[in-house]
Write a structure and sequence with these properties.
This protein is mostly beta strands and 723 residues long. It is built from 5 helices and 37 strands. Strand 10 and strand 11 form a beta hairpin. The radius of gyration is 25 Å and the shape is globular. 46% of the residues are buried.
């Protein structure tokens, strides 16, 4: 059973105020040796991270990494009140929602490819289960690594990776209180201390009692985390991070096209489709643990051994709005049953899937070093990686209980299904074993060549709902990767890179002839050229032109009994241009801006109607802008503003129906001052200030497509006090 306790804001504040013995922070900092990924520090006065690391291309700062990367630091996350993946996607034009319901775990897409929840999300560079409500309270910065491929993780979706970098121990004590226009209550504490010059701790906790803008979708969330650094001797270091979160919130179903051809109109985005009084909240409990041991043999060579464990348990309970198989307007079969009826009727299902358990375990060992051969300097990284993922599920309940209409003032109430879920059984056992190698070669003063690859072997066993073996497969691939960097001058780098990756084949939807069949794994190829310009230490400008291709997987119309067969036919090509600017334009003006132009098409599919137009849920253009201006006449006072744009978004495979383009504006205020020698930071933000209606997501789940409206105008207020 999911457990979510309410804790008063006063209790949270008192907890943060407990006295701590203060050691000398300068002494502690001097004893700490730097790490490559988990110990990245971003100072408030520098909005971009100078030492961002991409696993695919080894050690290197932002300018010397031949890939498109965006970093959102702690200051950005706090000032914009980012607490969900969907809100994270606001901050980069290359990101978009990909089936991200309110009240459920969310997923996003990078460069038009939905992330694989099994491998697309990382904490300190190690894989975590994406089927959880990823918390941000213990995160120092979020790295959006675009186009990461085989060398980064082996089997992974080609769009990229989201990496959460944890906070490290420091002398800090703060409490944050927050609310919003719906009356939510939020409290968080951040307490850090170097217990001795060699042992440091960082504790973060949050309690969230949220009132959703969607009726009957209020939720609760409790979060706790602990980070520990142990400096072992003069050369060793151990970093351990652990966090636990429990949440409970009713999940809001998405809309579907009416009759498979028309967007719903006059939608009340505050209404929960299909709401039934007996509907229980979706409970999600998650645990994530990472550990990293580094040892410096000398100034040139270092060993790194890391391990992680991630577990998410989902109690899925929802009165799910789906299709119109039982509606009168769909009875004759003229309207596809997996869409809402032309008049807005939809079926309601009692869906229950408790104890849906996902486990990720990873172990990595690597050696990093520097040496020279003639006039060439080498930075070598090589090692081995082991990754295991299991999925355990109970046989779910998914029973039709009644039919309602999207315009019902009050949703009709129906009796729940009397059926009960079955016992828990293993549904998937997946193991990856891999060896990887990367050599960064520097020569002729201004050239770098990066070459390497990963050999990966994937073993998978899948089981049916009763635990009987259904599929067993083994796959071995070598995935090469290479890049060339030219330093034109001290400020400008130009690069070109090539990478291959592999991702698992998708599962055929239940309404296709080959229901439940997993298609073979697909290989992706990416070519990217780009430029990185740093006119000052406080500003970065980037541009990237890329092409990603992989086999196209889709439900092909045919003459079979179901009318569709899920196939792998033709090629899916994503060609795009990304522009970014991050940092201080002037001493007072700070800017984070990005734009993306993406042409995503399928060709040679055997279905002409599905070719020649944008793919579903991939707008051709996006833009994101956020500015922060420090007012000159009031010390500590600043105004913020944001703008988000997306072009029309295809909602059907034949491209005939599109969600309209949208513009959304955000505004805010921030104020920093001292109160009895304590720093106090106030943040007020108003998202969607003009209360525009828009469809933010036309993503898919299990082969079906859904429409999620964007949130209405929302005001949020928070105050952080350093104690």
């Amino acid at each position: 059973m999911n457990r979510c306790y309410r804790i008063s804001l006063l209790t949270a504040a008192l907890s943060a105020a407990l006295p701590l013995h203060a050691s000398n922070p300068e002494t502690a900092a001097a004893d700490r040796s730097p790490t490559e990924l988990a110990a990245v520090r971003v100072q408030a006065e520098q909005p971009h991270a100078k030492n961002t690391q991409s696993n695919s291309f080894g050690v290197g700062d932002w300018k010397n990494t031949p890939a498109s990367i965006t970093v959102l630091d702690r200051e950005v996350l706090d000032s914009r009140h980012v607490r969900t993946l969907s809100e994270l996607a606001y901050n980069d034009a290359s990101l978009g929602d990909s089936y991200a319901p309110v009240g459920y775990y969310q997923n996003i897409a990078i460069r038009g490819f939905a992330l694989d929840t099994a491998t697309g999300y990382r904490f300190n560079g190690l894989t975590i289960a994406g089927e959880q409500r990823l918390a941000l309270e213990n995160v120092q910065q979020v790295e959006i690594l675009k186009g990461e491929a085989g060398l980064a993780a082996g089997v992974i979706a080609p769009g990229g990776v989201i990496n959460y970098v944890g906070k490290r121990p420091a002398e800090v004590r703060s409490v944050t209180l927050g609310t919003d226009s719906e009356g939510s209550r939020y409290a968080a504490i951040d307490v850090g201390h170097w217990v001795t010059p060699r042992i440091g701790l960082r504790f973060n906790a949050a309690w969230d009692d949220s009132n959703s803008y969607i009726d009957n979708a209020d939720g609760r969330r409790n979060f706790y985390s602990l980070a520990t650094d142990w400096l072992i001797g003069e050369r060793g270091k151990l970093e351990v991070d652990a966090n636990y979160q429990t949440s409970a919130q009713r999940s809001a179903s998405g809309y579907q096209l009416l009759g498979a051809t028309v967007l719903p109109r006059n939608v009340d985005r505050k209404k929960m489709l299909g709401h039934q009084a007996w509907q229980e909240p979706v409970g999600i409990d998650s645990t994530n643990i990472t550990a990293l041991h580094t040892f410096d043999f000398n100034s040139a060579w270092q060993s790194r051994v890391s391990a992680s464990y991630s577990r998410s348990v989902i109690d899925d309970n929802v009165a799910f709005a789906y299709g119109c198989y039982y509606a009168a307007e769909c009875a004759d079969g003229s309207v596809p049953g997996n869409y809402f009826a032309p008049n807005g009727d939809y079926d309601i299902y009692d869906y229950r899937s408790p104890d849906d358990t996902r486990r990720n375990q990873q172990l990595r060992a690597e050696l990093r070093g520097r040496f020279s051969t003639g006039g060439v300097e080498h930075q070598l990284t090589f090692g081995a990686d082991y990754f295991d993922r299991t999925v355990d599920k109970r046989r779910n309940v998914n029973e039709y209980v009644g039919t309602a209409n999207i315009h019902d003032k009050h949703v009709p109430q129906f009796a729940p299904s009397p059926l009960q879920p079955g016992p828990s059984v293993r549904r998937l056992d997946s193991t990856q074993k891999s060896l990887f190698l990367l050599d960064r070669m520097s020569f002729a003063d201004d050239w770098q060549l990066l070459a390497g690859g990963r050999f990966v072997r994937l073993d998978e066993r899948a089981f049916d709902k009763r635990g009987n073996p259904e599929r067993s497969s083994r796959l071995s691939r070598f995935l090469p990767q290479a890049a060339l960097i030219w330093s034109a001058n001290d400020e400008l780098n130009l690069y070109a890179s090539y990478a291959q990756g592999i991702s698992l084949g998708q599962e055929a939807p239940f309404w296709t002839t080959n229901e439940g069949t997993f298609l073979p794994a697909v290989r992706s190829r990416q070519l990217e050229v780009g430029a990185k310009y740093t006119p000052s230490d406080a500003l970065t400008l980037g541009a990237a032109l890329f092409r990603i291709s992989q086999p196209f997987q889709y439900a092909k119309p045919d003459d079979s009994a179901y009318g569709y067969t899920f196939v792998q036919e033709g090629q899916q090509n994503h060609i795009g241009l990304e522009l970014s600017a991050q940092g201080h334009i002037t001493e007072r003006l700070q800017l984070t801006a990005s734009a993306s132009a993406l042409r995503a098409r399928a060709r040679n599919t055997g279905t002409p109607a599905y070719e020649g137009h944008p793919l579903i849920n991939v707008p051709s253009t996006r833009a994101s802008l956020h500015a922060d201006y420090a007012l000159p006449f009031v010390s500590g006072l600043g105004i913020t503003g944001g703008w988000r744009y997306a072009s029309s978004n295809v909602a059907t495979a034949d491209g005939r129906v599109r969600a309209p383009s949208y513009n959304v504006a955000d505004v805010g205020l921030r104020f920093q001052h001292q109160l009895r020698e304590h720093a106090v930071n106030w943040n007020l933000s108003v998202d969607n200030v003009f209360n525009r209606f828009y469809w933010r997501d036309t993503g898919s789940s299990s082969g079906d497509y859904y429409l999620f409206p964007g949130a209405p105008r929302q005001a949020r207020l928070s105050v952080t006090v350093a104690l």
